[in-house]
Structure formats: structure tokens, C-alpha cells
Amino acid sequence: MMTIAVRIFRFLALLGTLAVPGAAMAQLAKPWQTDFQDAATPLMEQIISFHNLLLVIITLISIFVLLLLVWVIIKFNERANPNPSRTTHNTTIEVLWTVIPVVILVVIAIPSFKLLYYSDVIPKADMTIKATGNQWYWSYEYPDHGKFSYDANMVATEDLKPGQPRLLETDNRIVVPVGTVVRVQVTASDVLHSWAMPAFGVKVDAVPGRLNETWFGPVAKEGVYYGQCSELCGSRHGFMPIAVEVVSKEKFDAWVIEAKKEFASDDTGAKTRMFAQNETK
Ligand SMILES: [Cu+2]
To answer: Which segment of 2-16, 58-72, 139-153, 162-176 scores lowest on mean pLDDT?
Structure first.
């Protein structure tokens, strides 16, 4: 039963993705998508399996309630049952309809708390990135890799290169090595923003004057992953996307050397980055 419900959902989601030509290895929301993006990290895998568990539970409860309603309508309407019973108490059924929901809630609560702590407690991270939300772009720092920082502005529709998704591509991407656990520190310079990356299972508020922390990884596959600001932050809220490029360790080291030169110290002007021109593989 569980797998059937999940399969129906996955099939519908697949129908949605089939309609999109050539989106290849990039991870982004697709037109008519109904399900999650594919998980790129262990955390997102767990979020999806928890979602699937809940989906089965709510489906079963809904079907059960529907059947009860149908049963009552058919069996106990005025015509079928002209002399209704005068029963007001039934201890057995009252105990059951108290205990069973409690058991269901416990079944939900245990994996829910496990998942909550797994996502909240930051494991030993291999590197740190600091993301700052601005109206309306993100800027990034790599405190472990030297003093450089840069801005990531959305690529306007008319400037898109073939393969670059509209409203999601940035002129400078975040670059991280594959198979790495990354700590992300998130803050904002003006208003509330939110750094969200669906394939990683990450969404954290960017609050002015406060440093929030989250983490992602290890990302198993190289590729480009897309997210967006997920807190209403002003008129261009929908135009400050997040693009994370996961590359090999060697490519990352080469990028760091290049980025140090290009984005040295306080130069945060948006420039075209070394790999930014590589369209989504
Ligand atoms: Cu924002």
C-alpha cells in the first residue's frame, strides 16, 4: 500500500519532468513538477522518505474517514434506519479513538525529531561558506580559503547562454568540491532573506544582525544546483537566485586560486567567473 501511493506520486512527477527537454544534469524546479527535486544530499534523501511515510499515513486516514462517511450515509440514513439507536457511550470505541491517534502521532514524532536533529546539528564540516542576502542579490565569502568575496547577481533573460535556466542562473556561482560537507553561515545586510537549496534539503533565514548556520553535503554528484531566496524581501525577491556548482576537488582548488585573484579583498564587484560560462552540463 505504501509503495503504491508513493509510486503513483512518483509517476505523476515523472510525467511532469518528461515534458521538459534537455534539462540534463542541472538540478532545478521543472515546469509542472509536483514532487520534490531529486535528493543530492543524505539529508534531502531522509526528508523525502519522511515525506513518503507521511503521505501514506494521511492517505490511509483520509480513505478510512471517507469509508466511514459513506457507511454512515448508506446504512444510517432515515430511510434505511428509521429507528435510530439511543446509544450514548461505548467505552471500547472511545478508548480506541483516543489510543490509535496517539500511536499514529508517536509513529510520526519519532522519525520527525530524528530528522529535525539531523538537519539542525552541524557535523564536522570540511569548509565554510558565508552567504549574505542583499536587496536583491547574494554575496559570498570563503573564510577558509583566503580573503575573497563576490556577488552573485541573476543573469537577465536577454543575457542567458544556451542551457542556462531563466531566473535561476547567476553571473557568479558558488563553487564547492564534490563529496564535501559544507557549513553555511547565513546573514543579511538589509531585510530578511532566506537561503534555500531544494536538492540539498536546506532552507535557512538570513536575518540582519544575526548569523545563522546550516550545512549541506556531501553532495555525491557533480553538477549545478539551483535554489532561490525564499523569504519575501522586496520587489525583486523573485530575482535573486542561488546557483551552486559542484566540481571535482582539483577543479575547486583551481577555482580558489583564480577567485583569490579575481575577487581579492574588498572587491565585491560582480565579475564573470572562470567556470560561469560553462553551461549546465
Ligand atoms: Cu531575498
So the answer is: 2-16
pLDDT in tens, 48-88: 999 999 999 999 999 999 999 999 999 999 999 999 989 89
Rounded to two decimals, the pTM is: 0.79
Name 170's bridge partners: 154
Q: 196 CA to middle of ligand 1, Å?
A: 10
What interhelical angle do 42-75 and 2-18 show, nearest 10?
A: 110
CA of 99 to the centre of ligand 1 (A): 45
Residue 135: what residue type? Q
- Order of strands across the sheet that contains 212-216: 149-152, 137-141, 127-134, 182-188, 212-216
Question: Minimal CA–CA distance to 223: which of 259, 175, 184?
Answer: 175
Classified by CATH at the fold level, domain 127-262 comes out as Immunoglobulin-like (2.60.40)
> Is a pLDDT exceeding 90 seen at residue 4?
no
How far, in Å, from the CA of 227 to the mean position of ligand 1? 12
Residue 30 above 90 pLDDT?
no
Specify whether the CB–CB gap between 164 and 155 falls below 8 A. yes
Burial (Cβ within 10 Å: 0-12, 13-18, ≥19) of residue 57: middle
- Pairing of the two strands 182-188 and 127-134: parallel
The closest of 84, 40, 21, 20 to 180, measured between CA atoms, is 40
> 206 CA to middle of ligand 1, Å?
8
177/220 Cα distance (integer angstroms): 10
Range 2-120 has CATH code 1.10.287.90: yes
DSSP letter, residue 221: S
CA atoms of 18 and 79, how far apart (whole Å): 51
Domain boundaries, the chain: 2-120, 127-262
